[in-house]
Design goal:
Structural class: alpha+beta
Low-confidence stretches: none
Shape: globular
Distance between the termini: 46 Å
Mean pLDDT: 93
Number of domains: 1
Strand order of the largest sheet: 1-2-3-5-4
CATH architecture: 4-Layer Sandwich
Length: about 450
């Protein structure tokens, strides 16, 4: 597959499928010298994994990552203290599929003659033929987004070292839209939401806090633990820390399900989505991503404009639109209203608005970068739908499917956040290199 690779200076290659042995992120361009642990990578993976709440699919994948290579397996010299530091070689993160029992595979085998409307199953069958990985939609499944989260977490950690923050949240679900929130407040809220999810995630507590897997173990030792975890998925889930919605709100100041920095709007989103789901249908919505601390001039002209690179987030499954700043609203503006006028204050440039979303001419302006993604309703629904038999081309019906996400929006925001981080870091590396050479020539 030619489409499973992205980046120039910071690159990600992904492989695997929904019901293969697992998925893989191979990250190129990771700087050496950064401590990296599986626990912190999992802290992001648990934000998008299924089975976490009433708005997600009941599939019980833990999404426990295993760092296979790209970090030092031991101190390079005695007492160096650089064990588990990145070493500059390609970093490989494995994400084994643990909830892939035959009963679920059989369900796909029984329905794979009839492509699911809204899915890639018909087009991929025509492209790849009868050997197409159609069990669970293969690499066209939303499960592949775990590889983006894993690779993007690494990028996000590097960016933090450079003073750049990338965060995302749910802006709208099922027609319920959250009001505007100041960026610093939204960032603080999102960080508190992430802490809540780690504190209450049973696998985070069982596997990492209790030390069943740690970075001093060899690969085969970790895999032996995961083989045991595969048999304990339900018991571990049953031991999940329990907190009521009110207790979560009191302790963390966040909504217990949806990462939306307005708690009342978040609950209204859940209520609206549940009303839709009760009819057997699904809901879509909007995810917003914000980047703070980006230097001015990041990006390239013409084909590699920064906003064009961010537009590649259309590659995230279920994303059908990407807008930067005011986005499609500019069609109803005049130039005087759309233009972000500027002035100088205390030796700095201050903009009076940010309709450009922090990017003009494909280059960052130094303002916050703001990107929104339109997420379609989950195509797998609990309703009978018209389709075909892909072998005979006879018309037929597809039975209702109950193992599904009522909405995908609440699981896509961490994917968008980490995808954005990869794009920003890729451009930041090129920017730093270009500026260094420019300054040297000017000497």
């Amino acid at each position: 597959m030619m489409g499973c690779h992205i980046g120039r200076m910071f690159q990600l290659s992904v492989a695997g499928g929904s019901y293969q042995e697992g998925l893989t992120s191979v990250v190129h361009g990771v700087p050496p010298g950064m401590l990296l642990t599986e626990q912190e990578v999992y802290g992001d993976l648990l934000l998008r994994k299924p089975g976490a709440d009433e708005l997600s699919s009941p599939r019980k994948e833990p999404d426990l990552p295993v760092i296979y290579c790209g970090t030092n397996a031991a101190d390079t010299i005695e007492g160096a203290g650089n064990r588990n530091h990145t070493n500059g070689t390609p970093l490989t993160i494995l994400i084994p599929n643990l909830d892939r029992h035959f009963i679920h595979i059989k369900q796909y085998q029984d329905t794979n003659r009839t492509p699911r409307p809204g899915h890639a199953s018909w087009a991929s069958f025509v492209k790849y033929g009868p050997d197409d990985d159609a069990v669970g939609a293969g690499i066209f499944s939303g499960r592949y987004t775990s590889t983006i989260v894993a690779g993007g977490y690494v990028a996000k950690k590097v960016l933090r070292k450079c003073g750049i923050s990338v965060f995302s949240y749910v802006r709208e679900i099922a027609g319920v839209r959250a009001p505007d929130v100041a960026h610093d407040q939204a960032l603080d809220y999102t960080n508190r939401y992430k802490k809540m999810r780690c504190d209450l995630d049973p696998f985070y507590q069982e596997i990492y806090v209790k030390g069943r897997v740690n970075m001093d173990m060899r690969f085969l030792e970790k895999m032996a633990v995961l083989a045991q975890v595969e048999k304990e998925i339900d018991p571990i889930r049953d031991r999940a820390p329990q907190m009521s919605a009110k207790a979560v709100r009191d302790a963390y100041g966040v909504h217990h399900i949806v990462n939306c920095p307005d708690i009342e709007a978040a609950q209204a989103m859940v209520d609206a989505c549940n009303r839709v789901s009760a009819t057997g249908d699904s809901a879509g919505g909007v995810v917003e991503v914000v980047v703070l601390g980006v230097p001015t001039g990041l990006g390239e002209p013409v084909f590699n404009k920064l906003d064009a690179e961010l537009g590649r987030m259309l590659g995230i499954g279920a994303v059908k639109g990407v807008e930067v700043g005011a986005g499609f609203a500019v069609k109803d503006m005049t130039g005087s209203r759309d233009n972000d006028q500027m002035r100088a204050a205390d030796g700095k440039v201050v903009f009076e608005s940010n309709n450009a979303g922090g990017i003009t001419g494909g280059l960052s302006t130094g303002q916050p970068i703001v990107v929104r993604l339109a997420v379609k309703p989950t195509p797998t629904i609990d309703k009978r739908q018209r389709t075909i038999d892909k072998y005979t081309l006879e018309n037929t019906d597809l039975a209702a499917i109950t193992r599904r996400d009522p909405t995908i929006v609440a699981r896509i925001w961490p994917v968008a956040e980490n995808y954005t981080a990869m794009v920003i870091l890729d451009n930041l590396m090129a920017h730093y290199g270009y500026q260094a050479i420019k300054d040297r020539i000017a000497q």
